[in-house]
Design goal:
Blueprint lengths: L10 H26 L7 H13 L2 H28 L4 H25 L5 H25 L9 H16 L7 H31 L6 H30 L5
Helix pairs in contact: 1-5, 1-7, 1-8, 2-3, 3-4, 3-5, 4-5, 4-8, 6-7
C-alpha cells in the first residue's frame, strides 16, 4: 500500500489504503464526538465554530479553535515535508514515517485517556489537538500517496467527487473509461468504511471508552505490515531458490 508511487499504484492497493484509513477516520471522528463533543477527523465544523466565536467575541474559544485548526495544518505540513524529504531514497520509508508518528500519537491518547484522563477542559483541548494533528498527518499522506484520489476524512469533497464521477459514467457522451469506474469503487469504499468505522467506534467506546484507541493503531500497523510481508516473502523465496539451486561443476 505504501511502497508504490502515485503513478504506479494498482486498484487493489488503492482500495486497501482507502478502506483502512477511512475506517481509522470514521472511528476517530465518532469517538471524538462521543467523548469530547468535537470533530476530530476534519476541521469543517471547527471553522464554523470559529466564525461563531469571532462574532460573539469569545476570545478564549477563538484561541482554542485557532490552535485546533493549526494542529491539523501542522500535521499535514509535517507529513508532506517528510514524504518530500525521503521519497527519493525509498517510497516506503517516506510514506510509512507519517503513519508511524500517527501510531505513536494515538497510542499516547489511548494510554493517557485510559489511565489518567480526568475530563478537565484543558485535558480535553490537548487531546483533541493531538488527534487533529494525527488526522492531518494521515490525510496528507493518503492524498500524496494516491495522487489526490483518496480523501479519507473529507466526506464533503468525497460526495462532490462521487457525484461528478457517477454523472460522467452515465452521461450519454461518456466513454465508460476504466479509470472512472475505479474512482467510483474507491470513493464508495471510503464512504462505506468511514461509516463502518463510525459504527465500530461508537459501539465499542460505550463498552471500553478510551481503550478503543488501542485498536486504531492496530489498523495502521496492518498498513505498514502489508508491504513488509510482501518483501519478506520475496526475500524468503529468493533464499530458498538459491539454497535449492543445483551446484554447477
Amino acid at each position: 500500500m505504501l511502497r508504490q508511487s502515485k503513478n504506479d499504484r494498482t486498484l487493489k492497493e488503492n482500495l486497501l489504503l482507502a478502506s483502512s484509513t477511512a475506517a481509522v477516520a470514521g472511528i476517530t471522528n465518532v469517538v471524538g464526538m462521543v467523548a469530547f463533543l468535537a470533530f476530530t477527523s476534519n476541521i469543517t465544523g471547527h471553522v464554523a465554530n470559529l466564525a461563531r466565536h469571532i462574532v460573539e467575541q469569545n476570545f478564549a474559544q477563538i484561541i482554542i479553535f485557532l490552535v485546533w485548526l493549526f494542529m491539523f495544518f501542522a500535521g499535514a505540513f509535517v507529513s508532506s515535508f517528510i514524504i518530500r524529504s525521503y521519497e527519493e531514497r525509498s517510497y516506503y520509508r517516506a510514506h510509512s514515517a507519517p503513519v508511524i508518528i500517527e501510531i505513536i500519537i494515538l497510542l499516547f491518547v489511548a494510554i493517557y485517556g485510559h489511565n489518567f484522563y480526568e475530563e478537565t477542559q484543558t485535558e480535553r483541548e490537548i487531546v483533541i489537538a493531538a488527534i487533529l494533528f494525527s488526522m492531518g498527518l494521515q490525510n496528507s499522506m493518503v492524498s500524496i500517496v494516491s495522487g489526490g484520489l483518496i480523501k479519507s476524512t473529507h466526506l464533503t469533497g468525497l460526495f462532490t467527487d462521487l457525484g461528478g464521477d457517477i454523472s460522467d459514467w452515465y452521461h450519454p457522451r461518456s466513454t465508460k473509461a476504466e479509470g472512472t469506474k475505479n474512482k467510483i469503487y474507491i470513493r464508495l469504499t471510503v464512504l462505506g468504511f468511514y461509516f463502518l468505522g463510525g459504527i465500530i467506534g461508537g459501539y465499542f467506546f460505550n463498552l471500553y471508552e478510551f481503550a478503543i484507541f488501542y485498536f486504531i493503531p492496530l489498523i495502521l500497523l496492518t498498513i505498514l505490515y502489508y508491504d513488509l510481508s510482501t518483501v519478506a516473502r520475496h526475500k524468503l523465496m529468493r533464499f530458498f531458490s538459491r539454497k535449492n539451486a543445483p551446484v554447477s561443476k
